[in-house]
Amino acid sequence: MPPRRAIDPAELRAAVVAVTPWLRGETDIAPSRSELAAAVRLSARTLENIAPGASVEVRVPPFVAVQCIEGPRHTRGTPPNIVETDPRTWLQLATGFTQFEDALDAGTVTASGSRSGEIARWLPVVRGV
Fold first, then answer.
1. Pick from 27, 96, 103, 125: CA 20 to 30 A from residue 60's CA?
2. pTM of the full predicted structure?
3. Cα separation of 1 and 103, whole Å?
């Protein structure tokens, strides 16, 4: 499978900056669906690019699912290592506003499989927002 196109760091930063006040709780007004989708997709695909592989699947419904982290490749059925969360929690993880273990403890992230926690090593994917 060919690698996905590289993510433009400026495009990623702009998408995340657009939703940052909502992520920080500075406003109760949620971003538009298109703003939220752009930030989620670009940040998840950044993770996919910086941690290539197919041993862990990261799901952020309804916007994206990516495979990342080197190791045994999954090709059929339910992947053995899955991380799933909502868009807001994902973006908080992607920006470092929330730590992976804290999100697990809070129940805002579900992680199954022995390798699912390895994504914490690659977070945040966007710094300084």
1. 27
2. 0.92
3. 32
Q: What is the pLDDT of residues 35-69, one digit of tens each?
A: 999 999 999 999 999 999 989 999 999 999 999 99
CB under 8 A, 24+ apart: contacts of 117-120: 118/56, 118/69, 119/47, 119/51, 119/56, 119/58, 119/68, 119/69, 119/83
Let me know if residue 101 belongs to a domain: yes
Which domain range does residue 69 map to? 9-122
Residue 3 forms part of a structural domain: no
Residue 2 lies inside a defined structural domain of this protein: no
User: How many domains does the chain divide into?
Assistant: 1
- Banded model confidence at residue 4, pLDDT cuts 50, 70, 90: low
